[in-house]
């Protein structure tokens, strides 16, 4: 029985690893030409009951704990005028409830734990039919079970449902300051060791320290889908783009615009889309989905955790029913639909807070029970 996994993101790799640990072979088909072909983005906080549980099932929890950054759990929450609403500094002996890990390090950990032949790079999935997977380079291969782990813009998804991601009303520009401790020690001290959020009406700034000393900055604008085209941000001219972004933050405390001014030439626009919360499809014996392909949700801290746990739990279900893939898929989907619709609802309500007027005070009230 051949298991073909499309997508070597965190979810697809967690599945391949849990299958491997249980003595089941699978092949991951990834469109990127190599593991380092594309930057993998910033930090992720892995939660005990979801992302860390998956890493445990993958037999990699000790290696994960060695690379996780406890102090990355620090949080500073501010208002646009610079008022500090909340500061949480993680004690040295705090439990590793939600430690931050560099996404690229986590992906390397999973990739290094698989046999080399388990990932086929440069295989962009195009379509499937008659027991064959077809790739953009014209090649094809057989499968008994196809798992779409191909992310937000999944092509496998269309084999199961007509649902498509829609725009959330959030547009993000990603910027970054390299080696901040050396280049801008004052800004490094201001951002601190973890997450730094300034929430305003209709827009926000978040900064996050990465393991390599870079601070990634995300500027969010709660605007319509076509806003980037109308925003006047010249994405092909980084210096002018930074100047325009500083303009868009007129009226905010000068420390926030200083952060934008200190950034390098990375200026990446991202439109944020989601699938409908609670999306399901009639179970199909030889195809299923996991991660963003199945339940794309707002980026407020659950997506990667859910993708990892989907992969681990599908792997365990297949290991429990090695001769009955349809039973394994049915069991996996029942649990996944329920768990991820709860996570999707929670993420949507956090997103609603972030997009509301007086977001800072509302987020403070959200965090207060902690
Ligand atoms: C700005 C931002 C910040 C985020 N922060 C967090 C956070 O802090 N915590 C958290 O839990 N989540 C976070 N998320 C969400 C998280 O990134 C995703 O939920 C998670 O990466 C989904 O994993 P995945 O394996 O399903 O998909 P992906 O990580 O997207 O992997 C999909 C893989 O499939 C490959 N692929 C795509 N199409 C094809 C094809 N046709 N053929 C072959 N391969 C293909 C892609 O190249 C990719 O390698 C964030 C998201 C964004 C946008």
From TrEMBL:
Keywords: Cytoplasm, FAD, Flavoprotein, Monooxygenase, NADP, Nucleotide-binding, Oxidoreductase
InterPro entries xref list: FAD-bd, FAD/NAD-bd_sf, TetX_monooxygenase
Role noted for this protein: An FAD-requiring monooxygenase active on some tetracycline antibiotic derivatives, which leads to their inactivation. Hydroxylates carbon 11a of tetracycline and some analogs.
Record-level GO BP terms: response to antibiotic
EC number(s) from the headed UniProt entry: 1.14.13.-
Assembly and oligomerization: Monomer.
Pfam families: FAD_binding_3
Domain notes: Consists of an N-terminal FAD-binding domain with a Rossman fold and a C-terminal substrate-binding domain.
PANTHER family: FAD DEPENDENT OXIDOREDUCTASE DOMAIN-CONTAINING PROTEIN (PTHR46972:SF1), MONOOXYGENASE ASQM-RELATED (PTHR46972)
Compartments (UniProt record): Cytoplasm
GO molecular function terms attached to this record: FAD binding; monooxygenase activity
Binding site for NADPH: 38
Record-linked Gene3D superfamilies: FAD/NAD(P)-binding domain
Chain sites annotated for binding FAD: 45, 103, 292
Protein name: Flavin-dependent monooxygenase
Highest taxon, organism lineage: Bacteria
Top enzyme class: oxidoreductase
Family the entry assigns: Belongs to the aromatic-ring hydroxylase family. TetX subfamily.
SUPFAM superfamilies named in the record: FAD/NAD(P)-binding domain (SSF51905)
